[in-house]
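Troubleshooting: if your tokenizer reports a length mismatch, compare your output against this known-good record of 107 residues.
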Amino acid sequence: SVLLETDCACPELDEHKQPGPPPLRSSAPPDGLHNFSCDNLGRVKSANHLYSIKRKVLDLCFQMVVLSSVENPSSSLYWETSPMKGLKSVCGHETHMHQCMFGSDRR
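Known-good structure output:
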């Protein structure tokens, strides 16, 4: 089996977010905002490349009938990025765990 974990390299736009790094994604352009520094552009490009690799791994798992899972908050913009957008339609099962029971503020 394969477990792909969260990559927190690109903060998302969240109106309830505590002070921290500037958001690099929003629901309008989930693949990345366009008004940030060169350093942040590199972070977004790297994260998007990693998402593409993760999707290729998942597609290979589906083809080979290998049990696979992706860990990421349900409310994350990760699911709306270009590589991951169609994933929910091809996966066999979706599970939601509320991480607040483990001390997280996100669901």
